[in-house]
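The instructor's notes for this session suggest beginning with a concrete chain rather than abstract definitions. Hand out the sequence below and ask the class to guess, before any prediction is shown, which regions might be ordered.
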Amino acid sequence: MSDIAVEPAEVSDLSAASFEDLVAEMILRLGDDPEREGMRKTPKRVAKSLAFLTEGYHKRPQEVVGDALYEQSHQNMVLVKDIEVYSLCEHHLLPFFGKAHIAYIPDGHILGLSKLARLVDVYARRFQVQERLTEQIAQAVWETTRPQGVAVVVEAYHLCMMMRGVQKQNSKTITSAMRGAFLEDQRTRDEFLRLTTSAHEPL
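After discussion, reveal the predicted structure:
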């Protein structure tokens, strides 16, 4: 599993203009006219959208965390639930989306809560499969925070299953990854799973 960020030049030497040309060619080959009024700006919009949705290739978890690690003697589980996940399936380049639940047990340091959500985006904004995405999030928290344990669950709907193929609109995929105490201690793991599956109640 590679966590290494890729410099833009390593990803592609395509200029924005040439990428737009490729999108226009795709539209043409699919049977529409990229020059008609409603689609003249579509190649530019698509290029801009894909640049945003794959910007995770240019980010490293250490840079995202920065100095947001704080000395703290807290020894109990920290859980952030329902972090929105939006990614692109690497097989069909169709979206999958859902929620990530991340927990860790500090070992002398706590991490700024927003950084957990940002670490999700580092890996979600790439071409992905959900299984690898879940593992990469867990590994990033494990390596940058050095806690006693990390647990990640991702629940997602895949448009490649909903819009095409088997066309199952209500199927949800759930993946998990554990490190440290969550892997070694069943009670800790059970507590995490109980908290992530508890009913959503208003504060």
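Then share the key points. The domain at 8-53 is CATH 1.10.286.10 (GTP Cyclohydrolase I; Chain A, domain 1). The radius of gyration is 20 Å.
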